[in-house]
Amino acid sequence: MRRKPRAPRKPRVYRIRVELYLIVLAGAFALSVAISLLNRPKEVFYDLPHSFGVRDPAFLPSTQAFDRPSWAHGNRVTLLRNGIEVFPAMLDAISSAQKSIHMEMYIFWSDRVGGRFRDALAERASRGVEVRLLLDGVGSPKRLKRTDVDMLRRAGCRVEFFRPVRPWMLDVLNRRTHRRILVVDGAVGFTGGVGIADLWEGDADSPEHWRDTMARIEGPVVAQMQSAFEDNWSEVTGEILVGDRYFPQSVTAGDVLASVVPSNPRASSSASQTLYSVAISAAERRISIANSYFVPNDTSLSLLVAASRRGVNVRILVPGKINDVPVTKAGARSRFGELLRAGAKIYEYQPTMMHAKTMVVDDLFATVGSTNFDSRSFRYNDEIELAIYDSKVAGRLEEMFEADLAKSRPYTYEQWASRSIWNRFTEWLLLPVRSQL
């Protein structure tokens, strides 16, 4: 009697339990964070006594103590306030481009503003202008549609992402390009705090329209901004940009002495923190800082306290209740007490999110750029600052600061001392990670 053939055995299916999957995922994330923290740049402590002032001959060379001096005469700097002034100026520069457009942005999103810039860049590329767009691999992709990237590339734009999130790139996960750079034909440059998104539309006239500042630059210093873009572009693509197509012969455009200060975590020192530290230590009369994410480290805190105690009028403008990253405010609040006790004044901007990153010292030295006043910008991110040594530009920036103070409320020592138990508890929780804010 013949046996019936057995049915083929079904292969055993091994299913991973959801709990195990989540544990592995959490472990991988924790490992990536640990690798990033272990690979952080060595911190330099800036012990800078007040030994010279902003008008002293030693000041300008000292602002770039860890880099080659690059102060250049013959520039024109135009300060632009909010999207109502910033976006038309940037789009006008793009539409006039004849040879090249280079843009490096932390945020470039698919919305109304992003669409206008997408169309303007694509139009120039279709006319034969070389367009290179370098976007941060974390800040932009979350709200930038793939269709917009494809449209730009079809038009002839080179679109690249700086250090995109990849499992084999865990060591650079924590290091972003936070820069805002636009250089057109190597002759006109823009930098500041503005991103390409609807958040910056308008005139800071509603909670949805942020307060920010950009600078438009012409003159020899634009080549330094082009060089900063080229540095990160070449890291991503391997392409070196040389020749008069990108670095035309510089011409005098004005009478402003200025310098572009790029900063990155590759060196043990931070060029942006050096710039801030030397300026604060040199201050004799007044320091006006507007910064969206003000979380001073020990060095910055001690320099500001020392300046205030020697009679400098230290004023710091930060966001109020409207704050897109409330954790940074909690991280900073524990440090406010020492500043206020020393006589520094802190103000909270009321109408909308205050996103500007500017500083004016003694009505002569000023900075406009992408750098937040925190350890993340000083030690981890690639940033860029325009440093200006000119009383007229510094005076205009001071006027803008005063106008913002009129829309702000002072944060007093009494408020700080009577803050809630919950606020104190959140500050305590954030102590171990304050350097990451």
What is this structure, in a nutshell?
This protein is an alpha+beta fold. It has a single domain, classed as Endonuclease Chain A (Endonuclease, Chain A, 2-Layer Sandwich), CATH 3.30.870.10.
Number of strands: 15
Strand order of the largest sheet: 4-3-2-5-6-7-1-8-14-13-12-9-10-11-15
Classified in CATH, the superfamily is Endonuclease Chain A
What fraction strand? 15-25%
Mean pLDDT: 89
This entry's quaternary arrangement is: single chain
Main pleated-sheet profile? 15 strands, mixed
- Overall 3D shape: globular
Give the N-terminus to C-terminus distance in angstroms: 80 Å
**SS-based class:** alpha+beta
| Domain count | 1
Give the topology string: H per helix, E per strand: HHEHEHEHEEEEHEHEHEHEEEHEHEHH
- Can you tell me the CATH architecture? 2-Layer Sandwich
Number of helices: 13
**What is the CATH first-level class name?**
Alpha Beta
Poorly predicted tracts of residues: none
Helix percentage range: 25-40%
Radius of gyration: 24 Å
* Fold-level CATH name: Endonuclease, Chain A
Overall description:
With 437 residues, the chain is α+β, with helices and mostly antiparallel strands. The protein has one domain (59-436): Endonuclease Chain A (Endonuclease, Chain A, 2-Layer Sandwich), CATH 3.30.870. The chain is 36% helix and 21% strand. Strands 4-3-2-5-6-7-1-8-14-13-12-9-10-11-15 form a 15-stranded mixed sheet, sandwiched between helices. β5 and β6 (188-192) form a beta hairpin. α7 (271-282) packs parallel to α8.
